[in-house]
Write a structure and sequence with these properties.
With about 260 residues, this protein is mainly α. The protein has a domain of about 150 residues. The protein is about 80% helix and about 0% strand. Helix 1 crosses helix 6 and helix 4 runs antiparallel to helix 5. The model has no long low-confidence stretch (mean pLDDT about 80).
């Protein structure tokens, strides 16, 4: 089967979508790696500013060097959770919330640390940038609907027509099969009804013949009965005639008084 030539648009779409998946995976990996570097860089820059301020607070002393380190490590841990593929959605949402909370704490410390206003703005802005980059990177992922739409648009018209023709052929075959099954069922039902009618007619004919035979038998019996009665009446009449002849006087003989 010959394939129809692709249009310029289809050729461009085919080339554009050819390496969509590899490029998408590379971008996701690169974004996650860059996000970790940005987070680590921001935390490294702001750590001395926070640690020096907290260590100077009365009652905190040397613990001031540990507090920002714990906050920074927690933020890096949350980054790892949100960037892990297949992680439960609730875990990722919780990690994003914790990142925001930790970023707010870090930004507050940077803003409160003694320094010129411009320096405090810079340190606070760096923390907000790190949190923003983290949130955006957590949303990076493939748009499967867009990929599928691109694949559909890059498919040649002949392939689409072939798929449509195949679907229409399957539909026609299914319709033909259903029609054949319906015709077979109709013929079977007609044969069943015809057989039932024939059986009913045969039964009615048998009953009619039986009634005819019964009527003939009844009439024959009636005729035989009438003949017997006639014979009996004839026999009685004959006997009476013979009796009358026996009682009659013989010719020439004197009558007895």
């Amino acid at each position: 089967m010959t394939t129809a030539p692709q249009t310029k648009t289809q050729q461009f779409a085919a080339q554009y979508t050819e390496n969509v998946v590899p490029n998408m995976l590379k971008t996701i990996k690169k974004t996650h790696r860059t996000t970790k570097l940005i987070m680590a860089g921001v935390l490294a820059i702001t750590y001395p500013h926070q640690a020096g301020f907290l260590a100077s607070v009365e009652g905190v002393d040397k613990l001031g060097y540990l507090i920002p380190a714990v906050i920074d490590l927690s933020m890096l841990s949350m980054v790892g959770i949100t960037q892990t593929i297949g992680m439960r959605r609730n875990a990722k949402i919780g990690a994003l919330v914790m990142t925001g909370v930790l970023g707010a704490i870090s930004g507050t410390v940077n803003a409160a640390a003694p320094a010129v206003l411009f320096a405090r703005i810079i340190f606070t802005a760096l923390v907000l940038v790190a949190v923003g980059v983290k949130i955006v990177s957590s949303l990076v992922g493939p748009d499967f609907n867009a990929i599928e739409a691109a694949e559909t648009s890059s498919a040649p018209a002949s392939a689409i027509k072939a798929a449509q023709a195949e679907a229409e052929a399957r539909l026609a075959a299914e319709v033909t099969r259903l029609a054949a099954e319906a015709e077979t069922a109709r013929q079977a039902e007609a044969a069943r009804v015809a057989a039932a009618l024939a059986a009913a007619e045969a039964d009615a004919e048998q009953r009619r013949q039986a009634e005819i035979r019964s009527e003939r038998s009844r009439r024959a019996a009636q005729t035989l009965k009438e003949r017997k009665e006639a014979a009996r009446q004839a026999e009685i009449a004959l006997m009476e005639a013979e009796f009358d002849m026996a009682d009659a006087p013989v010719s020439g003989a004197p009558a007895t008084h």
